[in-house]
Design brief:
2 copies of one chain form a homodimer.
Chain A lengths: L1 E9 L4 H11 L6 E8 L6 E8 L2 H7 L3 H10 L3 E16 L6
Antiparallel strand pairs in A: 1-3, 1-4, 2-3
Protein name (chains A, B): Antibiotic biosynthesis monooxygenase
InterPro entries (chains A, B): ABM_dom (IPR007138), Dimeric_a/b-barrel (IPR011008)
Keywords (chains A, B): Monooxygenase, Oxidoreductase
C-alpha cells in the first residue's frame, strides 16, 4: 500500500471552503482505501489530509481524474502553503476499506 | 470526530515487531473509525499512526481496553521515541468506516 500524510494551510477564512472542495474531489477515486480531511484545532487555517492507496500507481492515476483536476483548479487559489508532506507505507490497521 | 496523527520510532531492528503489536492491539476498539499503521520509507525505525474516532471519549475509553493495555505493555519497551503527536478534527473523506 501507499500512504500520504500532508498538512496545508488555507488562505485566511477559506478553510471550510477548501475542505469542501477536497472532500468533494475525493468522492470516487479508484484504488483509494482511505482519504481523511481534518481540521487542525490549533490553527484555524490548517488542514491535515491522510491517505491510503492500494498502490502508488493508483494515487498517480487519480491526479488525472476530472473530479480531482477540478478540485485542484478550484482549490489552488485557496491554498496559502503546503506545510508537510510525508510518504508512508501503510501495513495494517482498521478502516482501510475496500477501494472506491 | 476526533483524530490523531503520530510518529514514533522503534528501537533499532524492532519496527516490524512493534507494528505487529500495534495492529493486533487495534483490532477491535469501539468508536474507532480508522486506525492506520504505516512505515516511514525514509527511516527504517519510524512508524506513523493515523487515527479517526467517532469522539474523543471513545479514544480515551479505548486506552482502558485489555487488548490496548496489553499492546502498550508489550510495545513500550520497543519504542525509542515519540516524535510527533497531532490532534485533528476529521470532517470528511473516504474510508472512515463504521466504528469497530
Amino acid at each position: 500500500m501507499y500512504g500520504l500524510i500532508g498538512k496545508m494551510r488555507a488562505t485566511p477564512g477559506q478553510r471550510d471552503a477548501l475542505i469542501a472542495i477536497l472532500v468533494e474531489g475525493a468522492s470516487s477515486m479508484p484504488g483509494c482505501l482511505s482519504y481523511v480531511v481534518a481540521q487542525d484545532p490549533k490553527d484555524p487555517d490548517a488542514i491535515w489530509i491522510t491517505e491510503v492507496w492500494d498502490s502508488p500507481e493508483s494515487h498517480k492515476a487519480s491526479l488525472s481524474l476530472p473530479s480531482v483536476q477540478d478540485a485542484i483548479a478550484c482549490g489552488r487559489p485557496l491554498i496559502a502553503a503546503l506545510d508537510e508532506h510525508h510518504e508512508t507505507v501503510p501495513v495494517g490497521g482498521h478502516g482501510i476499506g475496500a477501494a472506491a
